[in-house]
Design a protein that fits this description.
This protein is mainly alpha-helical and 295 residues long. It is built from 10 helices and 6 strands.
Length: 295
């Protein structure tokens, strides 16, 4: 296997490469080589930014489908332990919980996506699987690694993958998993906002992975915006009465006001997120008024 200094002819033919250094899994003691995306060479063709801050990457005529999100999560190919790279090392309590869930982790994943082999090159299915596994494993991690925002990011990225899977295989029901992941992301993003005040998790440790996409890390501004956008989109599923929906929207609107209101006078905040925040803020105001207005 060649590392990042692979020769030009090799790079010209492939999307990814395996790192030379081996990564050891604490859970099952298996070594593996992390797969990484070759940069440059016209592989990535960036398209539009969606309302949920996803960068669309157009299909490449030479290389086919290329998505940098495929390679974000480290996954052990044997026991399917998964995490963001900086969280790979486990303390004893986390290790015990994750080691005890190996069978369930594989069974749960294969019920959704069928047999999985992470020794293969990453693709659409393995990308989706990596984020499901990350969610499962962060459910078992202690608060010291800030699991809540990392579950939120994994959930929204997973939702993007299942949206693409639904487009490829529209009869299987991947759209239901997509919606479930979006709703999970909404809950975890709301919890992250609360933790920014309460300090129950060191959310700053997640700042480098908040993204949510790989091209532009919107950081905690992205958390504030996505919490409001997703609350609007899934209000009926999150709250079953108009009164509870109103409460959710008012709370999300107040958080969004700090981003939108503070951002209007700030040159440091990119116009793209401010424009999206304004649109969502206006939509929330109209919906809140239709539900009886803010008390």
């Amino acid at each position: 296997m060649k590392d990042a200094k692979a020769d030009a002819s090799q790079q010209g033919k492939k999307i990814s490469f395996r790192s030379k250094d081996l990564i050891k899994c604490q859970v099952c003691a298996t070594d593996h080589q992390k797969e990484q995306l070759f940069m440059g060479g016209g592989r990535l063709i960036a398209g539009n930014l969606t309302k949920d801050l996803r960068r669309i990457y157009e299909k490449n005529k030479k290389f086919g489908r290329v998505n940098p999100n495929d390679y974000v999560i480290n996954v052990c190919p044997k026991c399917l332990y998964a995490s963001f790279p900086k969280d790979w090392n486990l303390n004893q309590e986390d290790l015990s919980r994750i080691k005890g869930s190996i069978g369930d982790r594989r069974a749960n994943l294969e019920r959704i996506l069928g047999p999985i082999d992470f020794n293969l090159d990453r693709n659409l299915v393995l990308g989706a699987a990596s984020y499901l596994l990350a969610i499962d494993c962060y459910q078992l991690r202690g608060p010291g690694v800030a699991p809540t925002p990392k579950k939120g990011v994994s959930a929204i990225k997973g939702a993007w993958y299942f949206d693409d899977l639904h487009s490829e295989f529209p009869t299987i029901g991947f759209d239901k998993i997509k919606d479930l992941l979006y709703r999970k992301a909404t809950v975890w993003y709301a919890s992250t906002l609360e933790m920014m005040t309460s300090g129950t998790e060191p959310v700053d440790l997640a700042s480098q992975v908040l993204g949510p996409d790989t091209d532009n890390n919107w950081g905690f501004d992205g958390v504030i915006y996505l919490n409001s956008f997703l609350t609007m989109k899934y209000k009926e599923q999150l709250a079953h009465t108009p009164e509870k929906q109103l409460d959710l929207l008012v709370k999300a609107k107040r958080s969004l006001a700090k981003l939108y209101g503070g951002g209007k006078a700030s040159k440091s905040k990119p116009s793209a997120i401010l424009e999206l925040a304004k649109e969502t803020y206006d939509d929330m105001n109209a919906t809140i008024e239709a539900l009886g207005g803010e008390k």
